[in-house]
Amino acid sequence: MNEKNWLADEFEANRTHLRAVAFRMLGSRTEAEDAVQEAWLRLTRSDRSGVDNLSGWLTTVVARICLDMLRSRKTRREEPLELPAHGAIADIASNPEREAAFADSIGIALLVVLQTLSPAERVAFVLHDMFDLPFEDIAAVIGRSAAAARQLASRARRRVSGQSETPEVDLARRRSIAEAFLIASRNSDLEGLIAVLAPDAVFRPDAAAARLGNVVPLHGAEAVAESFKGKARSAKVALVDGEIGVVVFIEGQLRIVLALGFDGDRISTVDAIADPDQLGEIGYSILEG
Fold this sequence. Notes:
- The chain is built from 13 helices and seven strands.
- Strands 2-1-6-5-4-3-7 form a seven-stranded mixed beta sheet, sandwiched between helices.
- The chain has about 290 residues and is of the alpha+beta class.
């Protein structure tokens, strides 16, 4: 068997799984098929010499394609869910073979709830809770840290299960920690910064934030504190996708979001997001007073 035939056979062996991943993310059989077909095209054009786990590689590729499609859909303000409360129930019942990915039964209600999640939340939740991908792998797909991916999946899980967002007491406590962080930053208070950072705190900028601020990933409270000393002049504490974070405006425009992760009463992760596409999908509200 030549390599092309072997590759085609391996892809077909993974097709049902890939369609299931795409369908759960997109809620559309047509778009799921498009995503899977695009994955096949990328596979045929790629250098596979370093791919040890083809199934995992294909899952990651399909997830990235779906994330791009979700972001594009959000930009166009379109939600092409093919399974709303009307019509589509009969379509599935009369055409069971058309959707192999639906065979292991996701449930229409869940698909509808998934539509309310942000693209990154949706991808993190589907990949982790439905397909058991580790957060380290999910982080590479969504361009965030593993800690941020874990937070996104956790928030999505609460919404899917109908639970309330982070309890108000936690939000209030984390808000005070974030405010203390900004005050110490503006006052060049290195000790104050270290006091609100976990000893193993991590700062991770995306590519756009790294260019904008001329910064690099950092590990450890002292290194992170030093990088923020004397800064944050135009930063404000905000509710970012339901969690406490920081937004930074430059010339009146949102340019950076700092997604904060917490470990008890200290900040454990700071993810700087400046990519325009990601900023466009983040919901935020500035917390005043």
